[in-house]
Amino acid sequence: MKQRSRKEKFIRMMKRDAALHLMLLLPVTMLLIFHYIPLFGIVIAFQNYNPARGFSNSPFVGLNNFKELFLTPGFVQALKNTVIIALGKIVLGIIVPVTVALLLNEMRKARVKKTIQTMIYLPHFISWVLMAGIIIEILNPRSGMLNQFLGLFGIDPIFFLGSNKLFREIVWVTDVWKEFGYATIIYMAALTSIDPSLYEAASLDGAGYFKKMLHITLPGISMTIVLLMTLKMGSILNAGFDQIFNLYSTITYESGDIIDTLVYRLGLGGGRFSLASAAGLFKSVISGTLLVLSYKVAHKTSGYRVF
Amino acid sequence: MFFKESIGRRVFVVFNYTFCIIMAIVCVLPLVHIFAISLSDNVAVNAGLVKLWPVNFTLASYEYILSEAKFFRAMGISFTRVGFGIAIGMLMTVLAAYPLSKTKRQFASRQIYVWYFMVTMMISGGLIPNYLLISSLGLIDSVWALVLPSAVNVFNIILLQNYIKSLPDEIMESAFVDGAGHFKVLFQIILPLSKPVLATLVLFVAVAHWNSWFDGLIYMNRVQNYPLQSYLQTIVVDINMDLVQNVDDLLLNVTQKSSKAAQIFLAMLPILCMYPFLQRYFTSGIVMGSVKG
What we know:
Number of domains of chain A: 1
Helix content of chain A: over 70%
Number of helices of chain A: 15
Largest sheet of chain A: none
CATH superfamily of chain A: MetI-like
Largest interface: A-B, 98 and 100 residues
CATH architecture of chain A: Orthogonal Bundle
Mean pLDDT of chain B: 87
Largest sheet of chain B: none
Oligomer: heterodimer
């Protein structure tokens, strides 16, 4: 009896919501084809995949690909590079935008502030391909603007993009240059939501600008900072494929090769599909776990919800 | 005491304005530099004479590009993918965002779908399985390989569903009472009210498609099917060129420099033209998407 009424209720719900299900049909199918089906392709990480034989006929080799991966020259280095580059980006990606947002917040001339914001958001919208083209030109050892400038101080030309000592620094600096402006948006928004009466009260108590910044502004956006920091922890293995791929070269593999670029070279460059998939899966599992964890922490600490 | 502080404040204000203005200039300087190179004589460029103003002004590199059919074909493919990308991407976003904006009581199966979409953000097949899928679907060298895989963008869906949620329920309820169905409510009531968000999303999708280069590089076998950014990736990004010491190669490198710069600039131009509109919408867009979550 109870079973039946539940079933009836289910049917009634389905009828009522039919149009909603119909709407979702197309997006759900697209995700099924282009997202869920490739998930089954992960099996090739456990196979000795041979394109001619396909998924079903390639022999399973267990975890051999993962063992081989750690013996592959350059993998451990790539892992190390990935974490170093990504960590640097995470730290700089918080410090710089927060500092700039605080400085912009102190500006009283609205038009100057607006103009500055317009200018610093722009690089975000230019692709890494074009940015890399520009950066390569500026860092050119012969004619580049930077070496010309350093030449004024009697410094010999430096082949920046050919130096393992400087490569990571270049990656950090150019990433900050491209993205810091855009990242300030979120902090600027958080700043506008601070109650102005707090500042008035502090002024009456004789607090100066610096004290107000330290005791009102910074705590006012601290929740946002913590939230973004938490969410960014999920990207500890995302060092930025687009940027690295367009700036690195054989000379700088040692300091700049990351897991994503290695996966590309092993797989599509070298035809070693199984090994590349194993590397991709290794990264994907760690990233996915960290992402879920960071969402959980963000939800607990600040009530953040994705949907 | 009061006087002292105001001096400190004044020093700070001067420093702050100076610093922020320099910072803003540094952000756009490289773009000005590349534009200046594109308008300069190659010899001057290679001697490192060009900074922010053209030296020995010439339009030679632009004339050269005008004769390059490859460049314009690639640009055409990019515009095609942007067009299809917007049309299909927006349809998917709208169709998914409306049902997901309902509460659990209004839409009994909502949570199942939410999970279905969420999972795709946490795990993906990765490069090799994706490539194998596209190739087994026979989409290699087809523009659909650039449009379909990214058609459903979960972040955009979240953004739009958050906006729809924020609309007052009464508007929809009165329409339902009048006998309107979900499709009618979505297309005749919700969408007209969501114009600002939809504009933001169209711009996001357009920029993402215009700037996309890696999919073109892997899914297109033939260079004549490359979208613009993939095509430029193959000619602009060549660090090893810097190493070349051979005189013949050096000359080759020299002749290419300002035309490379011109191509970079032309590829940025649509973004620069769209930028005023982008500016107006994206600030609100990103805030809606990430702070409220």
